[in-house]
Design a protein that fits this description.
This protein has 12 helices and 17 strands. By secondary structure, it is α/β, with parallel strands linked by helices. The structure holds nicotinamide-adenine-dinucleotide (NAD). Nicotinamide-adenine-dinucleotide binds near residues 12, 73, 95, 181 and 220.
Amino acid sequence: MTRIGMGLIGPGFVGAHHIDAVRRLGFVDVVAIAASSDASARRKAEALGVPKAYGDYEALIADPDVHVVHNTTPNYLHVPVIMTALAHRKHVISDKPLAMTAPEARRLVDAAAKAGVVHAVTFNYRGNPLVQQAREMIALGEIGPVHFVHGQYLQDWLLEQTDFSWRLEPEKGGESSAIADIGSHWCDLVQHVIGQHIVEVLAELTTVVDTRLKPATSTEAFARGGAEGRERVTIRSEDLATVLVRFDGGAKGSVSVGQVCAGHKNDLWFEANGRRASLRWLQEHQNELWIGRRDGPNAILPKDPSLLTATARGYAHLPGGHQEAWADAFCNVLRDVYSFIVAGGRPSDPHPPAFATFADGYRAAAIVDAILESHRQGGVWTTVENEGDGGNGSTQRHRATEKTIR
Ligand SMILES: NC(=O)c1ccc[n+]([C@@H]2O[C@H](COP(=O)([O-])OP(=O)(O)OC[C@H]3O[C@@H](n4cnc5c(N)ncnc54)[C@H](O)[C@@H]3O)[C@@H](O)[C@H]2O)c1
């Protein structure tokens, strides 16, 4: 089989998981990493067992052994890193959010189409077997047309004044914090599962911790620390949000997003209510899918390959009773993307389900922008910009849903 060279820019928290995941594929060589300086690149390359280290991302992109560029830098570097990779006609796998605004994300969609390369965004929850099970059950009409989708993504790692991240600094993270960081996951996930796009939003955003104590030196994501030697900074981006959503297939919904909710770690869940049944999936109990019925007993479907639909079964790699988790789903997403690359997939070819493209990244950025605008206007219904997905978005419409709900 063809071997593919991978280079990663931004070896922080999630970068290590990108490396771990591609190593499991068996046909990808992790060739190089680029960090913010030569010294940190060398240190990280040694720790991660990567042969080449660059203190400058342009040098990594120019390396002929690197065929696929992974971008796991802080949000403000996504556009320059991706544009440079596209100029070198390298395939790009970027972490979310694709860009800090919808127009910037749109620019990346257009540049990727022009470069004719494979482009992906790691909306990794798509890679869970039971997420694919829910998607397929809805596509096959098993729960009837979906009329309501609700859920949340709550965390607590920003509850204290001493909790700090570049995500809270608008010039590094973008104007939105919680919504762009984790709300975007929920929005992509439910659109993917129910096969409908969010087209209007009504939002109320809050900054609960409006003054924080910023550490003198930058810390890795999610690090905790004491209050000594810190600078007081005013925070304007939201750490809590309530959003109503309307979908283009007629479904209505709501989501709560927060990073200041004690006891909640990665408490992401959604429930889809259809005319015949309901489905609920909780990220923290990801090996179970709840099926709710009116005319029969409710059920829990376990992640057991022998009980799953044909597509979902391909995302489960252990027999029933063995738990699969976040890193396995992440690997499934990268398997979908790299299999597409190896097969010589072109942008117009059908994408495997867990593979989100830049068009999906643009859609998520447009939802974030609409949520910010809705809040600025005092909480009014706001249309999500849609400049087309370039024909290669991978959130496929489910015919069963489209036919019946109007
Ligand atoms: N898909 C997911 O579930 C998920 C999870 C976490 C983070 N993310 C996304 O991944 C990205 C990184 O987040 P993180 O939590 O890993 O952050 P992080 O701060 O832990 O890592 C970012 C890394 O980029 C490096 N960096 C900074 N400037 C650089 C430069 N000029 N060149 C090369 N490297 C540079 C930093 O030194 C750091 O090592 C963000 O966009 C975030 O939204 C996604």
